[in-house]
Structures are given as structure tokens and as C-alpha cells.
Amino acid sequence: MTTDSTSDRSVPDEVHETLMEATYRALCAHGYAELTMQRIADEAGKSKSLLHYHYGTKRELLVAFLDFLLDHFEQRVEETEGDAPEERLRFLLDKMVPDEDDDGEYDRFGLALAEIRTQAPYVEAYRKQIAQNEAAIRGRLADVIRDGIEQGVFRDVDPDRTATLLFAALDGARLQRVVVSEPDAENEQTAATEAPNEVRAALETFVVSDLLREEGSQ
Amino acid sequence: MTTDSTSDRSVPDEVHETLMEATYRALCAHGYAELTMQRIADEAGKSKSLLHYHYGTKRELLVAFLDFLLDHFEQRVEETEGDAPEERLRFLLDKMVPDEDDDGEYDRFGLALAEIRTQAPYVEAYRKQIAQNEAAIRGRLADVIRDGIEQGVFRDVDPDRTATLLFAALDGARLQRVVVSEPDAENEQTAATEAPNEVRAALETFVVSDLLREEGSQ
């Protein structure tokens, strides 16, 4: 889908998708600091001038990429509409931990994203797009919790505050893991490597189970 | 206190403290990318050559600084020994959210730390020290929870997993806040700005209250 970026000269959907996926692969392969338009073009099998024509600068392309991630996330959330609230909540939480067959992509992309995020205070366009993406994640989590409360499946909690906890916990765990990740991990690093799955399990115990608890049983 | 860094040529305790506090102020003022030995020396009112003599390179100085933060944290934890477990736990959690009279230091230092952390995968010495610091924070939180369980004040949970959740949640909230922080915050950014205090409140509801719940009342 097309973005509403000013530098986007009506890039066709298919080309946009190809270029955004190439950006993802280039970020995983090279990290943020070493990312160049040439590397993205190489990944896409397109010319560098095509990238500049459609997106402008590398910064503008990255803002379009963050917006693409947001669209992707919203689509996945939409696909779960109609499912039970506890199922939808667990689906969203599970999406924030590494897959069983993850080959390092969770770490590599997590690090690239963390690098872009620490640039945000210096780059207005990143900051705005990141704020929007993260507000959307919190918002969708809160919607699911709100639905659960309305349907009488979840007990009555503050949906926004609970969503903020869920997102911050899994986001913090990912950051802690990616910054110390290395193949030959030592003892101290094991705790960080396991943080995403440990946090996911703790959220099940302390939050999801609590939401499902019958009112008045505390 | 002295560090056991190889490049530390027996810096006297008082000088070490002065230089480490100057490093803290220089990081808050300039961020990680713009940090120079000269700026730290200026903050300390010392010569740049003194810094190089005692610590070696800027990287080595920053590793000593991370170790200084760890000592500082351990000291604060020690000072609470003897207090009730729930009091100690709340003290540690409160230390991870902005003070009421915070003048932007929480954000500026939080961002500088995040910048150092995203360098960790590329700088072995940072990675090791950061892994050690974060393992210590998780470890002290787990110790307090373990004490509470042994004293019969907290219900029986997995202390390490619970500590991992607490640390990740407050760490993630801080990251989310610092990367989008700006004086003229818009709507989407408000949620991120409030994330640390919202997460702190949610942890009280979902974790601390749960720990204090009487066994068998679920």
C-alpha cells in the first residue's frame, strides 16, 4: 500500500512492498549505521535512483518503512477480529517474542530498530512516526482488553494502563536481549537472552491469568 | 572506589568519584555521540591528559563509568537491608521512574544510556559490562522477592522470572519515553511520556499486590 509521505511519487503497491521488504532485509544484514540506499537497492534488485525517485532521502525511506511496519501490524490485528479476546491478547503478546525457529532475525532486526529509535530525539520525522507506531501498538492491546471487559471475559482493569505495561515489558525484554546478544553467551548474558520468553511467561501468570480471574475472587 | 579495569592506574577514590560524576553530567549535556574526553575533563575541571592517564581511551572510561553506576546501585540496595521486603521492592521500583522534581535528567541520561547500549553489540567491553550491570539489577530484585517469600510476606512465585518482568517493564517504559521525548509533546507522545509512571502503577496492581495476596485466596 502507498504511504502519504510527501516524497512518495505514487510508487505502485507491488514495488513499494518489494522495496520495503528489501529495506527489512538490508537492516537485518547491515544494521542501521551501515544501511545505505545502495544496499537496499541491491537487496531489491532495483536501481538506487528508483529508490531516491520514490522516497527521497534515506531518512524519508526509513519513515516510509516504519509506516509500512505499522500497516503490517494493523493488518495482522484486523485478521484476528472475531476471535475471543483472550486468544487475540495472547496472539499479540506471542508476536513480541522470538519464534521457535528464529535464526537470529529477532535479534538483528530488534537491534536495527533500537538504533533507529535512539536517533529519534535528533530526527523529527523518526520521532513522529515512532510515536505513532508505538501508540498504535498500545492502542490495539488496549482495545482487545476493553473488548474482553465489555464481553465479561476479563475483569475490570484500566485497559490503557494494562496495555502500556504489556508493551513496555516485552519491548524492554527485547532491548535487553538484543544489546547483549552474541553466539557464545556467558552466564550473565543468559538472563538477557531468555528475557523475552521469561517476561512472556510472567505476563501470563501476573496479567493474563489475573484478567481472566472471576471478579470478587481476590 | 576504584575499578579493576586494566587501564586504571590507581586513581584515588575522590578523583575517581569526581571524574565519574563529570562523565554523568557530560553524558546528560551532550549525549553519547557528542561525548568527548575534553568535555568530560571540562565538566570535572581537570585536564584531558589526566583522564587518559587514569582510564585510557574514551571506551575504557565509559566501561569504568558503567561499573561506577553498578557500585552506586549496589550501595543503594545495601542501604535498604533490614527494611521489610515490600518496602525494599517498592523502593527499587520507584528508583526506575522519574522523580517528581525531575528537570529532564531522567530523559537525557536515559537516552545516553540507550545510545551506549545499542553500541554494545559492536563493542565487546560495553557488552560485558552492560550484561553484568543488568544481571545485578535483576539479581537484587530477585533477592528481595526471595526474602519476601522466605519471610512469608510474599506468596510463592518464581523470583527470577518475576524480577525479569519488573526490570524489563520499567526499562522498556523508560526507553519508550526517552526516544519520543520533546517539550511540545503531541497526543501520541503523551502515552510514551507517561509510560514509566503508568507501568509503575500497573506493576503495583498486577505484581506487588499479587505478591502480597494471601496464598490460597486466588
UniProtKB/TrEMBL annotation, chains A, B:
Residues 36-55 bind DNA. One of its GO terms (molecular function) is transcription cis-regulatory region binding. Signal peptide: none annotated. Pfam families: TetR_C_6, TetR_N. Gene3D superfamilies: Tetracycline Repressor, domain 2 (1.10.357.10). Keywords: DNA-binding, Repressor, Transcription, Transcription regulation. It comes from the Archaea. InterPro entries: BetI_C, Homeodomain-like_sf, HTH-type_TetR-like_transc_reg, HTH_TetR, Tet_transcr_reg_TetR-rel_C_sf. The keyword Ribonucleoprotein does not apply. The keyword Signal does not apply. Residues 13-73 form the HTH tetR-type domain. This is DNA binding protein putative transcriptional regulator.
